[in-house]
TrEMBL record, chains A, B, C:
This is Putative membrane protein. The lineage of its organism: Bacteria, Pseudomonadati, Pseudomonadota, Alphaproteobacteria, Rhodobacterales. GO terms for cellular component: plasma membrane. It is found in: Cell membrane. It is a multi-pass membrane protein. Belongs to the UPF0126 family.
């Protein structure tokens, strides 16, 4: 198995758990857990594959991805009540899944020989769209849009650092590690220490 | 015309009517009715065709699908006010469309020779995503996420029963009938008698 | 560069600005601006290309589209506070982007030799889905669904007039100009003079 397939597997499992945690907030039944888990787990990678014209989409030829996502949903369904703060767990798992999925997107786009802009975009797509679909469908405020936190920014910075590392001719495995590390450190730093970029502030309305 | 094309036509018409009924709740004009009707009618099948790499997407080569969806929207626009409870009609039409569309998804995936996991998933995708897009765009609570009802579960059970029937080497037409029947009976039973699976319950918060 | 590529560029820039304006209403940071701008800018054309099986999707082979969208987002991030009414600006830019994108969709579908129904649908898809994704993701009421305004109707009428102009064997450039003109005049007329089609009215509930 290639490093990229491994990353896809890892991001599927962790994103599936975040999907199941959101399903627990919506008090769905076990099939609903599996549905939201699968949507979250494969959403970003599916979009990446459709955009890049990869045929078949990664999980269509490999049912193992879906079975793993369902297994993760099952585990969450029966154990989530043991967790003190499901929302905090959701945030942390999501940060890990983000880092891994950005890296998977970057890896696939690099393997296919795409240029730097597309590599960065595929990292962002793969990382952000699974969680975005989860939040839109379940009517949660998308983590992506939370003020005072960085999310897309972390994905962007991670994917960009991979492009730079690749430009410096670092070995592939180092490129992928740098990408995942940079994404996760920025997102985690934002959650712990409130790292953020300045947000847009409108003028106060005139009276 | 194949049995699967017939199922696609039937699900397009019935889903279009549900889309138009949701449009009537949002008080749109006639083009808005047609837009939401088409989105609902072809949404699930379009996702299925994109995921399976079917080219062209089923309605792109066959404008009749779209014209039928628009005709259904027109009929609803001029007659919906005659109905006592539009919401109840919406629920029942949606249950029929779900059953037919799950079966169309299963049929296409089987024809293309996909494995059991993909067959079940395509049934669920084709059945659930049209209605899900309709509800997300129109800002209704997705039927899929309603507590105390089965929806994705009915689609899952119907598609799974088709896989079992196919494993038992039943004739194709019986496989499709079992799929539609199982899906619809479960969904209808849920609406009439409140059949449901246990939902996730969080621990009560500690104080 | 073909007329259609030019239209794609123009719609990308203007839609990107509307996306950035919506991002300013959500008070996102600069990367969030770029993210929503890109989603809005290429959303409709991406759907069109996936549906028509164009490979690669228009911006995947041409990073310039994405860079332009990001540049537009940047400009809006630093200058939007100078504008008296950002919402009014958003509406007007959106009307221009709608007209241009409908025309780009119509042009691509005609170039590929599709029939009239698909030409009209691709015009509507390309014109409406970028803005729809923007509004759904940012939890705004989709402009498409605003009562008492025409939006999908303008797209439909513009695309239809292009089909008629093409049937009359007008030169390509005239067909495209008629399409953009008809769409924009109808949408602008709706915003200024309140042009609209009659909306669906339910019977008053019986008491």
């Amino acid at each position: 198995m290639t490093a990229v397939a491994l990353l896809d597997f890892a991001s599927v499992i962790v994103f599936a758990m975040t999907g199941a945690l959101v399903a627990s907030r919506a008090q769905l039944d076990i099939v609903g857990f599996a549905f939201i888990a699968c949507l979250t787990a494969v959403g970003g990678g599916t979009l990446r594959d459709l955009l890049l014209g990869r045929d078949p989409v990664f999980w269509v030829g490999q049912p193992a991805y879906i079975l793993l996502a369902c297994a993760a949903a099952l585990v969450v369904f029966f154990t989530a009540h043991l967790v003190e703060s499901r929302y905090r767990l959701l945030l942390w798992l999501d940060s890990i899944a983000l880092a891994v999925a950005v890296t998977a997107g970057v890896g696939v786009a690099m393997e296919l020989g795409h240029n730097e802009v597309i590599v960065v975009l595929m990292g962002i797509c793969t990382g952000c769209f699974g969680g975005l679909m989860r939040d839109v469908v379940c009517n949660e405020v998308p983590l992506l849009l939370k003020q005072g936190e960085i999310y897309a920014t972390a994905a962007f910075a991670g994917a960009s650092s991979a492009v730079i590392a690749s430009f410096l001719a670092l070995p592939d495995i180092a490129v992928l590690l740098i990408c995942a590390g940079a994404t996760w450190v920025l997102r985690a730093g934002s959650m712990i220490w409130g790292w953020s970029l300045p947000v847009y502030k409108a003028r106060p309305p005139k009276n």
